[in-house]
Each structure stands twice: as structure tokens, then as C-alpha cells.
């Protein structure tokens, strides 16, 4: 598929997906969403060990496309919300970690997209918010749930009810982002983290992601039992044999992802 609204560059086993609709601040219309779905579900293969998702020019994503939403019936808006939610779930459940390198505005659906990623790293210029109440609507791409699970209900309620925008430092303070860098450093620091992740046993990383994602929706006793199941799965891998042998032989492990 030829993408009109994003680019996807792959270097070794790290993919960088850049949203490229700068004239509309990378707002998510149906075409952008469909390209995002394609890249995560069909284009990127099992060889990929980490993905960096970022935006071109001054925005990460300024939200769902307000102009496109304007013409929708309530039923169409529900279908649009639902299809976006399923695409975000495919990012959340992608086999390898996804780092959101938030370069600028991450508002509404843009903040929700960043929340569907495993880790958020922000530029000093990034701005976050759920401004939907300014438009008479609510977050519809998972924001009421993922923001609450990420920063806790107190801060999530404040951001969602007021529609206020916060800067990168405040997003860092409340745990919405892991780190803040200058705009010039953002991608290099994201690649550095991606390379660290990509150097680890890929199946183990993938199972960690599954344990965290699925376990957080279970009660604690079921969740830790689920962790034991996945632990046994990692224990039966070739990479476990290699990792432990390499430790004993005092050499660097070479992982194959099996
Ligand atoms: N949708 C469509 N176009 C947009 C959007 C958007 N979300 N954001 C910006 N644009 C467009 C502008 O209309 C403008 O286009 P044009 O040049 O043709 O007039 C262009 O991008 C540049 O924007 P501005 O001139 O406004 O740039 P500024 O630097 O002055 O302002 C802001 C930047 C503050 C980010 C401002 O553009 C803004 O407030 N944007 C809207 C932010 C917003 O409200 N986002 C939430 C949208 S709702 C949402 O995301 C719901 C998600 C769930 C949907 C569920 C499915 C139904």
C-alpha cells in the first residue's frame, strides 16, 4: 500500500512511523486512520522489535479531524469512534513496544493515540490535553479509560472535565510521559531507547508487554497466575537458553526471538 499521510522507515529491526499531514496538524481523518491500521497490522512484520511513532512539523496529532466529524450522524460518529478504538487496540497489542515520540500538539485523539503506545517521550514543545468538552463531545478513542489508567482518576478527571492543555513538564510530573528532551534530542533519545529494547530477547519483551497489558485488566491473583503462564512460555524459548548460557560464559547474548 502506498501511504499518503505517513511514512514508515525501517532500520534494522526498528521502525519509525511519522504522521505526515502537517497542514491539518496531523489530525486523524478516516484515511489517516486506515493507513495507521495498515502499517501496524499488515506492513510491519514479526522482525520488528520496537516502533517509534511521531508526527511531522509542529504536531504529533491535534486530534480527530473536526471538519470530517462535522458531517457525521450520531451513528456514523459511533462507527468512527469504534473503528479508531480498534486501530488503537492494534497498536496497544502490537507484538513489540511502541514509543510515542511526542514532538508537538497531542490533543484529543492525539493524546489518546499517545496513550495507546507503550511509552511516551516528549519534546519540550509538546502539549497534551483532552479538549473534547470544548466541542460538546467526549474522548472517543479510549481516552476516558487509558488516561485514567495512566495518570490516575484525579488528574484524568481534571484534564477531561476542564479540557485544559498541559505542557511537557507537567505531563512528565503527572506520569503521562516518561521523559522530556529538547526538540533536537527527541528522536535520537527515542531511537536510543528503541535500540536498548531491540537488543533484549524479543519474545521475552513481547511477553512482558502481554503480561502488563492483559494483566492490568484482571484481578491481581488471576494476573499474577497469568504472569506465571507467560514466565513458563519464556522459559521454554531458545532465547532463555542462550541468555542464561551467555551469562554463565560471560559473553553477550545473541537473541533470535524464539
Ligand atoms: N481537525 C481538523 N483540522 C485541524 C485540527 C483538527 N483536530 N486541528 C487543527 N486543524 C487544522 C486547522 O483547522 C488549520 O487548518 P486551516 O489552515 O485549513 O484553517 C490547521 O490545522 C492549522 O491549525 P491552526 O491554524 O488552528 O494552528 P494553531 O497553531 O493556531 O493552533 C491548535 C493549534 C491549538 C492545536 C488548534 O489547531 C486546535 O485547537 N486544534 C483542535 C484541537 C482539538 O480540539 N482536538 C480535539 C479534536 S476532537 C477529538 O480528537 C475526539 C477524538 C475522539 C473521536 C471519536 C470519533 C467520533
Automatic annotation (TrEMBL):
Q: What is the originating organism of this protein?
A: Uabimicrobium amorphum
**Any one of the GO BP annotations:** fatty acid beta-oxidation
Note whether Lyase occurs among the keywords: yes
The superkingdom of the source organism is: Bacteria
Keywords (alphabetical) are: Lyase
Q: Name one Pfam family in it.
A: ECH_1
The molecule here is called Crotonase
**What molecular function terms (GO) are annotated for this protein?**
hydro-lyase activity
Report the Gene3D superfamilies cross-referenced here.
Answer: 2-enoyl-CoA Hydratase, Chain A, domain 1, Lyase 2-enoyl-coa Hydratase, Chain A, domain 2
Q: Which family does it belong to?
A: Belongs to the enoyl-CoA hydratase/isomerase family.
